[in-house]
Amino acid sequence: MALVSINELPENILLEVFTHAPARQLLRCRLVCSLWRDLIDLVTLWKRKCLREGFITEDWDQPVADWKVFYFLCSLRRNLLRNPCAEEDLTSWQIDSNGGDEWRVESLPGDHGTDFPDSKVKKMCLKSQLVDLKAEGYWEDLLDTFQPEIEVKDWFAARADCGCTYRIRVQLVSENYIVLASFEPPPVTIDQWNSAEWTEVSHTFSDYPSGVRHILFQHGGKDTQFWAGWYGPRVTNSSIIITPKMTRDRGPLHGSA
Q1: Pairwise pLDDT comparison (142 vs 114), residue with the higher score
Q2: Is there a single domain that holds both residue 217 and residue 161?
Q3: Residue 257 resides in a domain
Q4: Taking a C-beta distance cutoff of 8 angstroms, is the pair 97, 128 a contact?
Q5: Which residue has better confidence, 127 or 98?
Q6: 83-116, pLDDT tens digit by residue?
Q7: What is the Cα–Cα distance from 182 to 179, expressed in whole angstroms?
Q8: C-alpha distances in angstroms, 241 versus 101, 150, 208?
Q9: C-alpha span between 177 and 158 (Å, rounded)
């Protein structure tokens, strides 16, 4: 019986095979031959993979500039901050400044506090963290050519019986730790005898310079009464999420292992 080349399969069958293949392997397979390259670059293939992975539904009607990029960014999409609600105490967080009675992890709502809007969030603390984007699976071409949006969020609240000042700084940093873009709003001061309500802070980085390889997330503050104990701002549910843009097309995507 004569051996049959995989390229002799009908193109729709070969396309179905590629739909089930690992995405990063497909980027390498583009180099096999012109037929494979053309099939792997088809919008149909990456739209099928998005549907198969549950990134979209059958009735999806939003515009997508590059389905291949959209697939990879959706597959990598998650909170890049580890232990964001301090469920594992201060694991993965670095303490940059530890004045007063130092940082502490508390269970919500805490003394003179209020419940967090999301009932799944149970812990809070003050902390900082550096995210290595390459270690998290984002390669240079994906970051530099397509510039996906980087969404940053944080939540803070004061104790009802004590005023405090809250501050946050998020920086996009190069391989050599040069700051390329920064989000650092003015500190927020809350008066004593407040409602202890939770406030969300959010910022989206877009159209930032090429060369971003790390993200520095830093937040904290202090109480305004200078009491002994833990009376500064409470923070929790922090997040850094990289999400695809759906309105821009910048050419073919080339991956790296």
Answers
A1: 142
A2: yes
A3: no
A4: no
A5: 127
A6: 988 788 778 888 776 554 445 566 666 554 666 5
A7: 7
A8: 32, 6, 15
A9: 33
Distance CA 110, CA 89 (A): 15
CA distances (Å), origin 82, targets 92, 138, 165, 229, 246: 6, 16, 24, 27, 27
Number of domains in the chain: 2
Burial of 66 (0-12, 13-18, 19+ CB in 10 A): buried
pLDDT attached to residue 213: 98
- pLDDT for 144 beyond 80: yes
C-beta of residue 69 within 8 angstroms of C-beta of residue 247: no
Q: Closest by alpha carbon to 99, among 191, 227, 202, 190? A: 227
DSSP state, residue 210: S
Can you give the length of the chain in residues? Answer: 257
Q: Are residues 147 and 237 in the same domain?
A: yes
Taking the model in full, what pTM does it have? Answer: 0.79
